[in-house]
Amino acid sequence: MNSQIALIQNIDALLPQTQCGLCGHRDGCLPYAKSIAEGEAANKCVPGGQPVADALANLLGRERLTAEASVWPIQSDGRPQRMKAVIREDECIGCTKCINACPVDAILGSGKLMHSILTDLCTGCELCIPPCPVDCIDLVEDVKPVPTDAERMSEQKDLRQRYYAHIQREELRRLHRKGPVVRAEIDTALFAQFSQQTDAVPEIQMVEKADHPAVTHDAKTTIELAKLRTQIKKLEKQLSVREDANKRAQLAQLQQQLQHLQGEA
Ligand code: SF4
Ligand code: SF4
Ligand code: SF4
């Protein structure tokens, strides 16, 4: 691994992985980590607060700067209060707009059905709130005890993995997406490039959109494609009810197989 990638990785390891974009980097923590490595000030992570700004100054041997202020009060660990989003489910119209906006896939639901948030996974990033047309998502204080350093590292690792899985899925869906795109397109190329240089995150593969996607398949390929699509639909349905890491991994694998077969055919 080259030293610049190692530096970005070390910076990223200190960032909360909320992927909220409040540092000014719409696509989340990694683009900010890259920009810090290239010289940007290291005090702009709002959810990280002063502890993250100080840890970054220490890592980089830079002057200590006052962290960007949060609208939330400061917790006992010096960081802004952790928040969680909650959907007022009786008001939800099931429009699904919040689902794509969530960088860590913490929202469950499907078209015209009530949606709910997996509270344990929600980071309080607020990205689901603006797209909601009926304004039925509230932010509430996270009442769980402030995490220990070890718990925080483990949580960050999990959020990072979930974000990469989210990016890969969005990249695959880009080809077939019919509905409106709620979140702006993520700069997938940056994440793909980074993921190829480290084993610490799942590899992200770019998908090329054909100018003329109409293709004819031989009978065997057509059957194989139909089988894959059925398996994918079944898994998506199961995952919309209950999250499961193995099924999620299986889904990503099937989607890649489908993509590969479509590309070959
Ligand atoms: S958690 Fe911090 S570094 Fe990550 S996107 Fe939000 S403000 Fe930026
Ligand atoms: S549910 Fe909303 S606030 Fe919670 S992580 Fe997802 S987008 Fe962010
Ligand atoms: S955006 Fe709002 S109304 Fe639409 S599914 Fe999400 S919570 Fe329900």
TrEMBL record:
Segments forming domain 4Fe-4S ferredoxin-type: 83-112, 113-142
SUPFAM superfamilies (UniProt xref): 4Fe-4S ferredoxins (SSF54862)
Coiled coil: 218-264
A GO term, aspect molecular function: metal ion binding
Keywords: 4Fe-4S, Cell inner membrane, Cell membrane, Coiled coil, Electron transport, Iron, Iron-sulfur, Membrane, Metal-binding, Repeat, Translocase, Transport
UniProt KW Metal-binding keyword: yes
Keyword 4Fe-4S: yes
Superkingdom assignment: Bacteria
InterPro entries noted in UniProt: 4Fe-4S_dom, 4Fe4S_Fe-S-bd, 4Fe4S_Fe_S_CS, Elect_transpt_cplx_RnfB/RsxB, RnfB_subfamily
NCBIfam families the UniProt entry points to: rnfB
Protein name in the entry: Uncharacterized protein
Higher taxonomy: Bacteria, Pseudomonadati, Pseudomonadota, Gammaproteobacteria, Moraxellales
